[in-house]
Amino acid sequence: MHFRLLCISLLGLSLNAQAAFSIPGFELVQTAPVETTLSNSDLADPVTVWCQQFDAAKNTIDIAQFYVTSEPGEPLEPVLKHLRQAGERGVKIRFLMDLHGVRMSNEPTLAAIKSIPNLTFQLIDFGKIGGGIVHAKYIVVDGKSAFVGSQNFDWRALKHIHETGLLITDSKIAAQVQAIFNVDWQAQQLLAEGKAVPVLNHQVVAADESQSAYLVASPNAYNPAGVGDSESELPKLLAKAEHEVYITVMTYAPLSYSYKKPAPYYAVIDDAIRAAAQRGVKIHLMISAWNTGKPYIDYLKSLQVLPNIDVKVVTIPEAKQGFIPFARTLHSKTMEIDGKIAWIGTSNWEGGYMNNSRNLELVLQNSAMANRLQQLQLQLWNSVYAAPLDINQEYPNPHPASAN
User: Fold this and answer.
1) C-alpha to C-alpha distances, 85 to 53, 96, 120, 154, nearest whole angstrom
2) Signal peptide: which range, if any (predicted)?
3) pLDDT value at position 397?
4) CA angle 145, 338, 251 (to 5 degrees)
5) Euclidean distance between CA atoms 59 and 47, whole angstroms
6) What pLDDT was estimated at residue 9?
7) Which residues of the chain have pLDDT under 70?
8) I want to staple 75 with a disulfide (CB 3.0 to 4.6 A). Which of 83, 158, 263, 337 is the partner?
């Protein structure tokens, strides 16, 4: 356990030191929406973690994001300030963003990032590679430490959205995250030259479950050596569950995230959850109120009627300042199994994420981390913000959520 000094804000205010829950190689990082009762004094916040990572960088910083957006006076501003300071002292920075994220980004933020000294910015059309998007949100510093989590490079993800991530100081895992970035950076360069991006894996790569902590990613075809396939690993872990599973995710459905109508059926995760419940495992599933539109709500109701499955809908109330687009929601992507296994990643639980988009997930076979993650999940599960899904209720179609 150690202490972190929070970043100095643009207003020049210095905040108090904060303890962070950790196990060897990993620290749990949370965003609790302001004006809720969901904060935790023992969990680090991403602004602190990202600023300290940038301050500690000696040679390189690599960042991959779906989109970027900041606002004056909001919490991404100090992050950008510390990133600029790293570039000014000679740290080489590479920033990779998905082409489809441009429409969700604001131009001043893009311009601010591109103006940072020693920073190279590239857009990648991951649809031309895996068929999806770069949905992963991660940072690698000097190839030795990394951050992976649900937090987008978005001021709202640092203040108004329920998010969960991990600071990674385990050198092996950090090196694997670095390898994923290198694969995608090189893929973008090949695309820019009009060349084909080679498939790295023609068969599913199994995760090394002998490790106490391991990284899985998607899509399997473009994972570097040593990184297992997240799409096959998630059902394998659910098949191991014996007693109880807690799942927290923004969107869930046996459908593919797609502009196609109807959306393609995708049963990989849904089948695994139903199979676990059928053999007596208690499944506790929390989803965002953004997940209540049709036909999503119908699939959720079909889970709620089954023995051993409880579904709750999480609604974060509007902030005092008024409506904020694409904010005030549950966006964490976590799972805890039997007090033994913690899953923390970047994928929503529907098709299009673990099969053809770039996403990263950490599996920690550690009871301390699993129990702390369960406590975080139970805090939300037992809060006033989570309500049981009522199979007889007609739920409204939510406002379209671009920040997915």
Assistant:
1) 12, 19, 15, 19
2) 1-19
3) 86
4) 70
5) 21
6) 35
7) 1-19, 258-261, 399-404
8) 158
Query: Would the CA dihedral through 261, 266, 269, 274 be positive or negative?
Result: positive
Diameter over CA atoms, the chain: 60
CA distance 75 to 156: 8
Tokens of 313: 């809908």
Closest CA to 98 of 68, 56, 55, 75: 68
- Cα distances (Å, whole numbers) of residue 175 to 121, 146, 359: 21, 9, 16
| Integer Cα distance of 130 and 251 in angstroms | 21
In 51-180, beta strands by DSSP E: 60-65, 68-69, 92-98, 119-124, 138-141, 145-149, 153-154, 161-168
CA separation for the pair 202, 204 (Å, rounded): 7
Tokens for 245? Answer: 């599973």
Q: Rounded to an integer, what distance in angstroms lies between the CA atom of residue 163 and that of residue 399?
A: 20
d(CA 9, CA 382): 33
- Tens of pLDDT along 184-203? 999 999 999 999 999 999 99
CATH node for 203-388: 3.30.870.10
Element (H, E) at 232: helix 230-240
Exposed/middle/buried for 321, CB within 10 Å: 0-12, 13-18, 19+?
Answer: exposed
Give pLDDT tens digits for 86-145: 999 999 999 999 999 999 999 999 999 999 999 999 999 999 999 999 999 999 999 999
Residues 6+ apart with CB under 8 A from 125: 98, 99, 100, 191
CATH number 3.40.20.10 is the correct assignment for the domain at 3-172: no
Q: What is the DSSP letter of 134?
A: B
Q: What is the location of CATH 3.30.870.10 in the chain?
A: 3-172, 203-388
Q: Judge whether 385 and 37 are in contact, CB under 8 Å.
A: no
Which two tokens mark 355?
Answer: 């099969």
Dihedral in degrees, nearest 10, Cα atoms 174, 176, 181, 185 = 140
Closest CA to 184 of 257, 61, 120, 97: 97
- Contact present, 308 and 242 (Cβ < 8 Å): no
